[in-house]
Amino acid sequence: MTSRPRHSTAWLLRAALSLGSASAFAQDAPALTAPLVQNSTDVAYPDGAHGDAVVILELALDPHGTVSQADVLAGTAPFAQHAQRAVLGWHFTPARRGELAVAARIRARVQFHQQHPSPTLTQPTKPATAPTAVGAPLEVTVRGQRQAIGQTTLSAAEVRDMPGAFGDPFRTVEALPGVTPVLSGFPYFYVRGAPPNDNAYYIDGVRVPLLFHLGIGQGVIHPGLVDRIEFYPGAPPASYSGTVGAVIAGTTRAPSTSLRGEINLRLLDVGALLEVPIDDGHGSVLVAGRYGYPGPILSAITSELSLGYWDYQARASWRIADHDTVGLFAFGSHDYLGTLESGRMVELFSSDFHRLDLRYEHALADGYVRFAATGGYDSQGGTFDSEGPVTTIDALSGAVRLEVDSALSSVLRLRSGASARFDNYRFEQGTAPVRPSGAMQPAVPSTADPPPTNLSGGVNAEFVWQITPSVEIVPAASFDMLASSRAEPEPAETRVQTILPAFDPRLGARVLIARDVAWLSSIGLSHQYPSLRVSAIPAPLVSVPGFPFGREQLQTVLRGSQGIELTLPEAIVMTVTGFVAGWSGLSDLTANCIQIMPANMPGRSEAEGPPPPLPYHCPADEPVTGRAYGLELLVRRPLSKRLSGLLAYTLSRSTRKAHFVTAEGGDAVANVPSEFDRTHVLNAILAYDLGAGWRSGARFVFYTGTPYSELDGNLPVPPYNAQRDPPFFRLDVRLEKRWRLGNSGSIAFVLEGQNVTLSKQTSSLGTDCIGDASPDSHTTRCKRATIGPLTLPSVGVEAFF
């Protein structure tokens, strides 16, 4: 039998440009340029297939020209699935609006032919070739995904290879300007001076208490499910109202119309993802998860800690009509940290959260309407002492939200929404531990026990107005209301109610000064409900939001920024931003808590008898005022390039009006640098594609030390916070070797190391205290603790199909 050579040809045909989800321009808008394919578009004929076929695909391209998703619009098996996998390897020049690279969605037609042998096989038609008899030209639609003013977006495809991130998109936030780590590798950050407990975390619009697993720093969502990370260090969009810190929002990938999967096996954890299309591509079902077992690594460093974590995600979606989709998304996370005390493991901290989100979305001609309902459960607990109680806070919640995104005209777009939320809190705690001095340390502030029941809601609106092709302004506002009630133990049956309204206006502007130069400006007023500190839980960085405890005062911040964005040759983008922020009523839970023991009072002898007990003093239990200002530099070349890199530098100062306990038991107040103020923070990343499937990269991290006060015994003495810890630096490395499996699959061996320099860090998160050597002294002298080296090696294998 004569064999018949088989091949395919693929076309990308003429473009018709539109503005899509971006705000529309007028007739004299900057020219829109369609993406052009840069590599071969040859698609091999599927094994075992017969006959000719045509497959039409819609490709999603990121601003770097990488195909992030391919959806089948027309075609039959096995051709459709084969083409869908193959086009993921195509690469394009980015679509551009003027000189600005933008995201795009294009249609591609792949035609398969089965034919008899011939001396020369037909070659793929190039994009510039005129259409042949395969049919009418297809349209290429460029949709510039609008980036909010002051927003930094990281695509998962771009950052999964970042050194020191261990393949997790969420960990890359630490490398951005304005982000000051509390501790190297610890996934809690000050952002432009705002404390970690006031940062807001979202997954697909659902608020969650944390995005990172404790200690190890991995994200709580499998990396294969994450499409992009949006980071708002300043005034966020109106839809993210209710935070005086930064907003970090993760968006998951759109449902796939083809089978896909991912397996990750490392020294630290194992993870997997599987997505299966159903109902002829009208729906899909996805399951994913990760289980951490860092015990062997920790045991090599210390035998006194136990750490474990896991997470899960399950999603189902159906396209019930041409423009209507329903989906169900369930996800959750668990963390545990224990310490060895008196020969037994004591729960130092534990955290669980679970969410179930049901949503309906209707696609408009140029936008969408989305309605969602979410149920949630949260639990956080821990203890300080081996003999002390474990205090746990549980919360049951329910929420609904409405989102509308629509173009009102060719130059005006509206993004609006409404939401309502119910939270019911519950405490479980034992008797508060007794300190050696006889003083009681409250596990929970008395003003927060019994716990409250909260009902909150709000509306928001944001207008994107393209005044001219070079000038865009974005006025926005939100109005929120919190109603909280709780029972008072005395007198019986009395309920205390708190009602706190908040109005948050915001204004942003983007002005194109020249072809490659844009000016970005934003200013906004934001409010946030008080955050609860539970003193018995030694992880104040994880807070319970929206939990007022005896004070009718909102956290408030007025913040603004001015920036210049430059588009440079070789796909390099540089942004320089100046920022300023001022807070009142701030719940800075990372501020030091000072408990003064009678035996620690200097200059007092046994002959004088025991001094009167001094109260437990915790400045974070009361609101503080503060401000922050600084300058940020971000230089990026896409990590999808052969030679890529990122340089992020922050010069800043953050201050607080802080409380300090004096030797006489008084309360000294001073404006000082905040507990985790760092003057200089630098991240430098360089990665290079070595060819033949090899890729290497390194990341250098440097930051100056945090402030502290000199101590007399364990009492701070003025000038407060005038001293600085030593600076810290570390080096992270990554080496990958990847092999292709079939047309779209791959398997890789990955070697990574965080802090391969084995650098140690001095921090206020720990203190070394010893008794004074003098026999007549009862003074305890403390010094800043040296922590580490905190280092994480990782050897792993990952496979994609």
Write the layout of secondary structure elements.
Blueprint: E1 6-11, E2 32-33, E3 53-61, E4 67-74, H1 79-86, E5 95-97, E6 100-102, E7 104-114, E8 140-141, E9 152-155, H2 156-159, E10 179-181, E11 189-191, E12 200-203, E13 206-208, E14 226-232, E15 247-252, E16 260-266, E17 269-278, E18 283-292, H3 295-301, E19 305-321, E20 324-341, E21 344-364, E22 367-382, E23 391-407, E24 412-428, E25 453-468, E26 471-488, E27 494-514, E28 517-528, E29 555-568, E30 572-586, E31 594-595, E32 616-617, E33 624-637, E34 643-661, E35 667-673, E36 680-691, E37 694-703, E38 707-708, E39 711-712, E40 715-716, E41 723-724, E42 728-741, E43 745-754, E44 761-771, E45 780-787, E46 792-800
Account of the 3D structure:
By secondary structure, the chain is mostly beta strands. The protein has three domains: 6-141, TonB (TolA/TonB C-terminal domain), CATH 3.30.2420; 152-247; 248-800, TonB-dependent receptor, beta-barrel domain (Maltoporin, Chain A), CATH 2.40.170.20. 2% of the residues lie in helices and 54% in strands. It has three helices and 46 strands. It has a 22-stranded antiparallel beta barrel. Strands 1, 3, 4, 7 and 8 form a five-stranded antiparallel beta sheet that branches. It has a five-stranded mixed beta sheet with strand order 9-14-15-12-13. A hairpin with a 2-residue loop joins strand 21 (344-364) and strand 22. The protein starts with 5 loop residues before the first strand and ends with a strand.
